[in-house]
Amino acid sequence: MYKSVLNLLETEIAIKFIKDTFERELAKTLKLTRVSAPLFVYPETGLNDNLNGFERAVRFDVLTLGKEVEIVQSLAKWKRNALAKYGFKEGEGLYTDMNAIRRDEVLDEIHSVYVDQWDWEKIITEKDRTYSYLKKTVRQIYKCLLKLSKSVNAKYPELTHNLPDEITFISSKQLEAEYKDLSRKQRETEVTKKYGAVFIYQIGWPLSDGESHDGRAADYDDWKLNGDMLLWYEPLNIALEISSMGIRVDEKSLVKQLKHKKELFKLENPYCQDVVNGKLPLTIGGGIGQSRLCMFFLNKAHIGEVQSSVWGEKTLKENADKGINLL
């Protein structure tokens, strides 16, 4: 039967240690300043993330304002707007705690209705809009993970992690060619199990079968300059996605991607207008899952062991029978 290395109270203390340690290292490495973030935005601003396009945002009316607002699904676009508003300069960036509700999420060991992540964004130049710059940034973040691994192991010797010294890069097209008879998720599983830590890049444009490797909104990542970071997670025998990130759209890539998804109507919203008219800085950014990071470094069997969310009675009973106590 499964037995957590740490009890409930020890787990809560360890969660804070992991979050504090990684947050400091990330901010120092990428030169980021912490800012406050909204829990909800006006939908008409275009600042909310519509993810794959079918997930329903949680919406409610504000009595005094007489208007409806949406709880954010991520801060991908809000951050870019904030960089301009707050007067950040080239090479500088921000990060924030993002909390969201994903009401349409299919719940399992790594998916919850409640989402918490570090959302970060940094101003770059036109010459930085390259694969090499993306690769450099991914390696910087991965080094933060390696340092965190050492810190956790020093504090909790019983917790060990088998991360490789380097992260492997592979494009979604290369992945398709190498594992053409497998599904998207099976490809991720096989390649991550093989290398331990992988960054799958160029996600959004169709592969040979006419479908993309994974869904991506058309109005924030440049699909030629983005990707997902995955770590092999032995306790569950899965590829665990820790981060999704990328260099953001400029005017040309925004229009091209919106046209592909038949969403040119979005060009009318304030955010897209600001991109087209050059009012927003060129940026790179992403999200890093807080609960998933804690789950990984604490060797937990379920995300509900590191965050307080809602679960069905069947899930609670099944996990309790396995010795898994959900918060």
From the spread of the alpha carbons, the general shape counts as: globular
The residue fraction in helices comes out at 25-40%
Overall average residue pLDDT: 93
Main beta sheet: strand number and arrangement? 8 strands, mixed
Describe the structure.
There is one protein chain. The protein has 327 residues and is an alpha+beta fold. The protein is 34% helix and 22% strand. An eight-stranded mixed β-sheet has the order 1-5-6-11-10-9-8-7, with helices on both faces. β3 and β4 form a beta hairpin. The longest helix is centred in the middle third of the chain and has 25 residues. The protein is globular, with a radius of gyration of 20 Å. The model has no long low-confidence stretch (mean pLDDT 93).
Provide a compact summary of the structure.
This protein is of the alpha+beta class. 34% of the residues lie in helices and 22% in strands.
Keywords, please?
9 helices, 34% helix, eight-stranded mixed beta sheet, three-stranded antiparallel beta sheet, alpha+beta
Topology (SSEs and partners):
Layout: H1 8-30, E1 32-34, E2 40-41, E3 59-62, E4 67-71, H2 76-85, E5 93-101, E6 114-123, H3 131-155, E7 168-171, H4 172-178, H5 184-195, E8 197-201, E9 221-233, E10 238-248, H6 251-260, H7 270-276, E11 283-289, H8 290-297, H9 313-321
Parallel strand pairs: 1-5, 7-8
Antiparallel strand pairs: 2-4, 3-4, 5-6, 6-11, 8-9, 9-10, 10-11
Helix pairs in contact: 1-3, 1-8
